[in-house]
Amino acid sequence: MRLMHLADLHIGKKVNGYSMRKDQEYVLQQVLDVADKEQVDGVLIAGDIYDKSVPAGEAVQLLDWFLTSLNEMQLPVYIVSGNHDSGQRLSFGAAMMKKTGIYMESIYDGKLEPIVLEDEWGPLNLYLLPFVKPIDVRNALGTPDDCDDCETIRTYDDAIAAVLQGTVIDSKVRNVLVAHQFVTGATRCDSEDLSVGGIDHVSASLFDAFDYVALGHIHGPQSMGRAEVRYAGTLLKYSFSEVDHDKSITIIDFGQKGDVAIRTIPVQPLYDMRVIRGDYATLMSPEFYGKQKKDDYLKIILNNKEDIPEAMGRLSSVYPHIMVLEYERLKKEMRAYDGEQMIRDAKRPQEYLAEFYEGLNGEAMTSYQEKILNSACKEIWG
For residues 104 and 180, what is the distance between their CA atoms, to the nearest angstrom? Predict the structure, then answer.
């Protein structure tokens, strides 16, 4: 059996004000071409289907086109929701789509039951776990959460452990999990949502019962602990921290139990994302830009000692997709900022959170709320 692993489509995303609509359609067409050429038996999509919980109309249309195209190829699609998705909105029409071979799991209801696939090696149990927070698992499992003495599911590690402990997994057959979580040790980049204090971490050892874990959430393709616990990564670069990423489609071939072969197929963007640096005169010389892919999405770093008047406008006449313009000297000045003063200016997390609460609600926390906040911060940071 051959499956394709995708994740973090982020349909509808904008990067530095630029819509990625055409770029996403371009790369999704490559996915369709690869699926056809490789004759895959199904497509796994591990969350963050949309970039926003309330996607724009054109984002919904693009996903509709993509899923319809896969359906016309008679390819089953197995989807879980990510932290960017609204589970309720993503689940619209799920029961109807299931009849056509599009399986959508977007809200955890306390059960994790397999979809049983078959090939010449027998059954392959496919589990679809949408993105869950500890509170989602507490609510779904009915865990008490209203007293200090009650045992509760407080961390993401606790949450995933509780989900899997309540799941019957037949170790004699092949088992595959599709999930959208942050596994401890994964390399992150700037385009991902970060949690304070690392409270969203999940141990890779929790997934030991599975022959393959198709992960989403991290934008750089990578394996965690073992090759079979893998982030597919995004299909496109969504920040300049990703300029060195090799974006790809992950293909997994399942033979008999224990026989898993993983390979990647590179994808090509409509416009690449790159960083170029130099002085203004050099960057504007035909000898230099004649050798450049001028339409790429660019971060330009000028090393001129003085500001160049109307630099962005002038550079854009040659490089139409400049996303960021910086001066090297300003970056050096920022790095030279007094680190000790930054430490002196810093506040405790409780103070930042209390200020945020007051700004949001127009009133300060009660003493009871402060007690809960202090207790939570102490648990997280010590």
Answer: 14
